[in-house]
Amino acid sequence: MSLEPKSESPRPLSDLERELARYIRYVTLERGRSANTVSAYRSDLERYREFLYTHGVVSPSGITPDLVRDYVASLRGVATTVARKLSSIKNFHRYLVEEHIVTLDPSSDIRPPSLPARLPKALSVTQAQALVDSVIGDDPAALRDRALLEFLYASGARISEALSLVIDDVVDDTGRSGATVKVTGKGQKQRIVPIGSYARAALDAYLTRARPLMAMHQKRQSPVVFLGVRGAALSRQSAWLILQSAAKRAGLEGLVSPHTLRHSFATHVLSGGADIRVVQELLGHASVSTTQIYTKVTIDTLREVYHSAHPRAR
After folding, report:
1. CATH value at residue 44
2. Would residue 248 show up in a list of annotated catalytic residues for this protein?
3. Domain range for residue 173?
4. Options 90, 262, 263, 268, the catalytic residue
5. Residue 108: inside a domain, yes or no?
6. Annotated catalytic residue within 90, 158, 200, 263
């Protein structure tokens, strides 16, 4: 059953269903969560509602700590998946308390599973260059693909941020790509990110020689920067296929994910001597602690180089 009320519902919505629907609207409209985040919330909470329904609970007031604990214990999957689903539940219960729907939060004492310390995978500088350079040709798709990869590596932007760029975010008063771009991140927070000459040249080539040909296929042209060959906004799935094709050509199959160039950007900038607070701003991290994981990556890299290069390292 959907969390959103339907015009022709076979039965009246329960109190729990109504509050879940209000919560989804709240995170969408008032909290400004991305479509992907809202979709994850909706899926997680629908499974939670189904569990509660099988236990006869149709009102928020009927949810007890034991029920929440039993549900979390029933979850299967890796620790990160379980932690995400529990986070969705805890956020919902926190909302119910803040909105005075209930007085107590039954999930407050339930802790997520311990997460393994995982370092982001980053390409070497040579590998990153090979990935970008694997796109050759002057046809519209090739010019777009090269511009997308150059932009991701130059800016450290998330793939979703790159795909939501509009023309005014990347061009200056002369109509060419500017030295900085405006990126809209999580929670609709905007940040200004500089990009280098390689990315600017690739963007200019795409914007002047390829994008107009793609856009002409649509009667109502999209302001989005990256388009599909038929003129609609490029989808996440298509962007993923572009990355995978480039990785295969560069001999990096299995090493590239949508976040790989973002991780590589952060690692390479820190290795080059950038201050961690600057990298935090470039990446759009709310907390510097999130950025600090990349310092561990660079330290590990330095250690590997030292042990392989110094004659008395071992």
Report:
1. 1.10.150.130
2. no
3. 125-308
4. 262
5. no
6. 158
Which entry of 18, 47, 191, 259 is annotated as an active-site residue? 259
Say whether 186 is catalytic: yes
What is the Cβ-side half-sphere exposure of residue 283, based on CA atoms within 13 angstroms? 28
Do 89 and 186 reside in the same domain of the chain? no
Mean per-residue pLDDT of the chain: 88
Residue-wise over 78-99: b if at least 16 C-beta within 10 A, else e? eeeebbebbebbbbbbebbeee
pLDDT digits (tens, 9 = 90+) for 75-119: 988 888 888 899 999 999 999 999 999 999 999 998 887 766 565
Which of the following is catalytic: 47, 186, 191, 249? 186
Task: Please say if 217 is a catalytic residue.
Answer: no
At 244-278, the pLDDT tens digits run: 999 999 999 888 987 899 999 998 998 888 888 88
pLDDT of residue 79: 81
Which of 33, 85, 263, 285 is catalytic? The answer is 285
Contacts of 119 (CB under 8 A, 6+ apart): 293, 296, 297, 300
Q: Are residue 179 and residue 260 in the same domain, yes or no? A: yes
* pLDDT, tens digit (0-9, with 9 covering 90-100), for 104-114: 999 999 888 77
- Coil, helix or strand at residue 106: coil
**Strands, E assignment, 131-268:** 180-184, 190-194
- Who wins on pLDDT, 108 or 294? 108
If asked whether residues 215 and 288 sit together in one domain, one would say yes
Strand partners, 233: 227
From CA 311, how far away is CA 314, in angstroms rounded? 8
Q: What are the tens digits of pLDDT across the range 191-250?
A: 999 999 999 999 999 999 999 999 999 888 899 999 999 999 999 999 999 999 999 999
Q: Please answer whether residues 306 and 300 qualify as being in contact, where contact means their C-beta atoms are separated by less than 8 angstroms.
A: no
